[in-house]
Amino acid sequence: MPLSLRFAIRWMSYPLVFGGSAAFMIWALYTGVPSWPIMPLVAAVGLIVIVGLERLQPFREAWLEDHHDTATDLLHMLINLTVIQFTAEILARLGDAVPASVRLFPIESPLWLQLVLVAAVLDLSLYVMHRISHRVHWLWRFHMIHHSAERLYWMNGERRHPLHAALMAGPGLVVLLASGAPSAVIATWFSILTVHLAFQHSNLDYSLGWLRNVIGVAETHRWHHKREFEDAQVNFGEFLLLWDHMFGTFYDGADRLGDAQVGLQERDYPTGYRAQLVAPFRRKF
C-alpha cells in the first residue's frame, strides 16, 4: 500500500468518517428531518466504512480473523442498538411531554448547545456506571461480557448484556427525561455515539495525535481491555476522557500495548450469545 494512503488512513479516518457522519446527523437535526430512519442509516454507512478501513489497514492482522465471535457480536450489536434506540425514543418522548412550567432543559438555546448538554449528561452517566461496573461485583458479572472479547474490532463496542447497556445509559436518560430534553437531540447523540464506539473498539491503525488525551479512541481504549487488567482500570470514558482526567483514571496507553492480549483471565467464559445472556446469573462467574 502506498505510504501516502497509509498516512491518509491513519490520520484522516476518524476526522472524515466520524466527523462526516456527525456533521450529517447534526444537519438533519437542524433541518427537522425525522431521526428514524435517517440517523440509523447514516450510522450504518459509517460502520460499513470502518469495516473496509480495518481490512485495508488493521492494527493487528490476527484480529481480522474470526475468533468464533462474529455471529455472537452481530447479535449483540443488532439487539443492543435496537433496544437502545427504542428505549431512548420512548423515554425521550416522555421528556417532550414535560410541561413548560417545570421544564429545566434549555430548549430555547441553540441546537448545538442542546446537543452538547445531552452529550455531557449521557457521557458522565456512562463514565460513572462504567467505573462502578468494575468495582461492584454483581455489575461486573454483567460487564464481563464486554471484556470477554479476545480481539478488538468494530463490533466490540456493542458487545454488552442488554440489561447492562440499559443500566449504563439509564441515569443520564432519567435526568434528561425529567428535565424535558428534546427527543430528537437525544436520538441524534445516540446515533453519533454509535459511530464513535465502533472507532473506539476498531482494529484500525489510526491516530488522533494529542487529541487521544481528550477523546476516547482506540489508541487509549485498547489498554482498558488488557487481559492483565490490574493496571488497566483506566480510561473509562465512552466519548470524552474529561471525566478520567478529573477523577484520576486517565492513562495514555498509546503505543504501549505491545503484544499484550485482550479479554478475560477466565479463559472458559462462554462464547455463544444465549450462554452470555445467562452467564451473569450463574454462580461460577
From TrEMBL:
It is found in: Endomembrane system. The chain crosses the membrane at residues 12-30, 36-53, 111-129, 165-190. The keyword Membrane applies. Residues 116-249 form the Fatty acid hydroxylase domain. Keywords: Lipid metabolism, Membrane, Oxidoreductase, Transmembrane, Transmembrane helix. GO terms for biological process: lipid biosynthetic process; membrane lipid metabolic process. The keyword Protein transport does not apply. GO terms for cellular component: endomembrane system; membrane. It comes from the Bacteria. It is a multi-pass membrane protein. One of its GO terms (molecular function) is iron ion binding. Its main location: membrane. Pfam families: FA_hydroxylase. This is Sterol desaturase.
